[in-house]
Amino acid sequence: MSTDVVLPVTERGPEAGTAVLTVNSQAHALRIEPRVSLLDALREHLGLTGSKKGCDQGTCGACTVWVDGRRVLACLTLAVTCEGREVTTIEGLAAADGELHPDHRGRR
Predict the structure, then answer these.
(1) Are strands 17-23 and 86-88 parallel, antiparallel or unpaired?
(2) Do the beta carbons of residue 20 and residue 29 sit within 8 Å?
(3) pLDDT at residue 90, as a whole number
(4) Domains of the chain, with CATH numbers?
(5) Residue-level pLDDT at 108
(6) For residue 16, what pLDDT is reported?
(7) Rounded to whole angstroms, how far apart are CA atoms 6 and 102?
(8) Distance in angstroms (rounded) separating the CA atoms of residues 10 and 27
(9) What is the dihedral angle through the alpha carbons of 84, 90, 53, 10, rounded to the nearest 10 degrees?
(10) d(CA 56, CA 75)
């Protein structure tokens, strides 16, 4: 028995279109080309610079984000494939009051 959610296929051409991405629990409508990586969408279109562009080949892990609770390399993931999914970046790990997630507090 599979629990995977199957989303309807959206026809896309090479030109820019609107993609709605849910990032850190907020929906964002972005006008992007289908070839834009998730990393570039986060950094250049949303201003979320916590995920870094390191090797741009998926080997360093600097661009790691969570998509539906699973770790993905944002430099190798097309942004349009994340429509209908929850993307969590490093910025999304802080509490509403700005308190850092335990994994990101300084070690004592």
Answers:
(1) parallel
(2) yes
(3) 92
(4) 18-104 (3.10.20.30)
(5) 46
(6) 86
(7) 34
(8) 18
(9) 0
(10) 6
> How far apart are the C-alpha atoms of 48 and 98, rounded to whole Å?
16
Counted residue by residue, the chain has a size of 108
Query: Are the C-beta atoms of 39 and 75 separated by less than 8 Å?
Result: yes
Q: The tokens of 104 are what?
A: 């990101």
Question: What is the enclosing helix (H) or strand (E) of 76?
Answer: none
What are the CA-CA distances from residue 67 to residues 1, 14, 22, 93, 96 (Å)? 22, 24, 10, 13, 20
Question: Amino acid letter at 83?
Answer: E
In whole angstroms, give the CA distance from residue 1 to residue 24. Answer: 30
pLDDT digits (tens, 9 = 90+) for 34-91: 999 999 999 999 999 999 999 989 999 999 999 999 999 999 999 999 999 999 999 9
Q: Tokens at residue 18, please?
A: 């609107």
Largest Cα–Cα separation, the chain = 52
**SS3 (DSSP) at 90:** helix
- Please state, in angstroms and rounded to a whole number, the distance separating the CA atoms of residues 61 and 103: 16
